[in-house]
Write a structure and sequence with these properties.
9 helices; 25 strands; 512 residues; 14-stranded antiparallel beta sheet; alpha+beta; 38% strand; 5-stranded antiparallel beta sheet
């Protein structure tokens, strides 16, 4: 739905902020400037006309003037969401959908704030196409505005950043239509499942989105029983079921549940905007019963952990991680680390063993950007061996980027320019430079062992990289590890929010 379309991609971005802080700082960054309500450019071709029919997304009941939802991470308030959808006054053949996300939390010693606003314009007819959009981002991660317009061959996007020249990015046409702006309410109105696609507001890729209608139920709201429609949506990008509850009488969105970790609850505007300061690290870490042995830090090295609440889909054996089921749903996880086998190492450029996805450029990775390409060439030089080249890139990123959480950025060229950041910036720039050098690479999300200032041994959410050099090998540019040691437990890739249900539920019962 309108909020769902924002909630899916943006929740991944929100939770991506709760990654390990690599170097504590005392000062907090300034609050992000308010987002200015810029309007998405409307298609200039046809004059205003009343369409013969309008989409079901317009017919569905919803609160007039939009709706606010408080955003909760492990039951702690970390932000709020606003969304609205309706016909444009004076342009009855156009629909405007507005989505905003405001996030604020203490991340280690840093105050992190982010504002993300999207405005999308669609044809109002059934199956009406997406014709324009404006996406604005402020605060942590950088400031930029993306203005997109449909063209005969696809979508033209102008990227605006303070102090920099505008850039134009040409995208293929998206299959997103007006019903995809609020699949939940459309599905509940029709009383049948809906499927489609959504252009993601972060990486501008188009991903399939499907919504399934569930049996209605009754809920007690302000002491009164209310009949509630329920639907579950899943995006091909996030792969996390998002359950939405909508009051059947007036179309109010009452709650959204994003796995078991993040929830959005309907609140009056004043309540939604009231944010308590939450410390994310302590809230999301996985506390260990005892410290890890020194062998976990050695190369080669190994450590064994007995875990609870680790879903079966995450228990996939790999060259680094092995799983053995024990009684009562417990799982013995063996983490190991060693360098790649010399006999399998190959020269670059290499073909991607997974079909090319790990060599692609994007508005985030930017591996074909001239500055990224030039920096990669300078680092690698004439080195043909892919692993040797990868080590040069990892070591340069580790030694060059200042460990500074307050200098977060969402784009590789921004990281290269400012040369600051935490684990996400280190990994993003490393993957970009690796791909530019012809080495398939991807980011890995998971947890890493640390003992913070309070002396409690724990696993903290972190990001590092994996490179294909003849075989896959994991490397950590944040901590300058050309072989990521066995204190790393990987559970996802490329900032994928599929891992978010583990936050707050995963437990380690034993260290062996």
């Amino acid at each position: 739905m309108t909020s769902l379309k924002t909630f899916l991609p943006l929740s991944a971005a929100v939770l991506g902020l709760a990654l390990v802080q690599c170097k504590k700082q005392d000062a907090a960054p300034a609050a992000p400037p308010p987002v200015q309500a810029q309007r998405a450019p409307e298609a200039a071709a046809a004059p205003p006309q009343a369409p013969a029919a309008v989409s079901d997304v317009v017919k569905a009941k919803r609160p007039a003037g939009g709706e606010y939802l408080g955003l909760y991470l492990v039951d702690k308030k970390v932000g709020y969401v606003f969304n609205d959808l309706g016909l444009i006054p004076g342009r009855e053949d156009r629909v405007r959908a507005i989505n905003e996300l405001h996030f604020k939390a203490q991340v280690g010693a840093r105050l992190s704030e982010r504002v993300h606003r999207e405005e999308r314009i669609y044809e109002a007819r059934p199956g009406g196409r997406l014709v324009a959009f404006t996406i604005e981002q402020r605060g942590d991660g950088g400031t930029q505005t993306l203005v997109g317009s449909a063209t005969p061959t696809g979508i033209s996007v102008v990227r605006k950043r303070p102090g920099m020249q505008d850039e134009t990015v040409n995208l293929p046409a998206t299959s997103e239509v007006v019903e995809d702006a609020d699949q939940v309410r459309v599905a509940l109105l029709r009383r049948k499942d809906v499927s489609g696609a959504v252009l993601d507001g972060m990486d501008l890729g188009t991903y399939k989105l499907a919504t399934t209608v569930q049996p209605s139920e009754e809920r007690l709201i302000s002491g009164v029983k209310v009949k509630v429609g329920r639907a579950v949506s899943v995006s091909d990008k996030e792969k996390v079921p998002v359950t939405a509850w909508v009051a059947e009488e007036d179309g109010r969105l009452l709650e959204m549940e994003y796995g078991q970790t993040m929830k959005a609850r309907a609140e009056p505007e004043a309540v939604a905007k009231r944010l308590d300061l939450v410390e994310v690290f302590g809230l999301t870490r996985v506390v260990l019963p005892k410290a890890l042995p020194e062998s976990a830090h050695a190369i080669p090295g190994e450590v064994k952990l007995v875990m609870e609440n680790l879903p079966e889909k995450f228990q996939q054996d790999s060259y680094r991680q092995k799983y053995q089921r024990e009684k009562d749903g417990r799982v013995l996880v063996t983490l190991s680390a060693k360098p790649p086998e010399p006999k399998v190492l190959k020269p670059r450029p290499l073909a991607d063993p997974e079909g090319g996805e790990n060599l692609k450029t994007s508005i985030i990775i930017e591996s074909d950007n001239p500055r990224i390409v030039e920096q990669s060439r300078m680092l690698v030089g004439g080195e043909k061996d892919a692993y040797a080249a990868a080590k040069k890139i990892v070591e340069w990123v580790a030694s060059t980027l200042q460990k500074d959480y307050g200098a977060s950025a969402d784009r590789a060229t921004d990281v290269l320019r400012q040369r600051k950041g935490d684990c996400t910036e280190h990994s993003l720039l490393t993957v970009s430079l690796l791909r530019a050098a012809g080495i398939p690479a991807r980011r890995v999300d998971g947890v890493i062992y640390m003992v913070n200032a309070d002396g409690v041994p724990a696993l903290y959410w972190h990001e590092w990289v994996e490179a294909f050099v003849g075989e896959w090998t994991q490397m950590d540019p944040t901590f300058n590890q050309v072989v990521a040691d066995a204190t790393h437990f990987g559970v996802g890739r490329e900032g994928n929010a599929e891992i978010t249900p583990l936050i707050g539920s995963l437990k380690v019962l034993e260290v062996r």
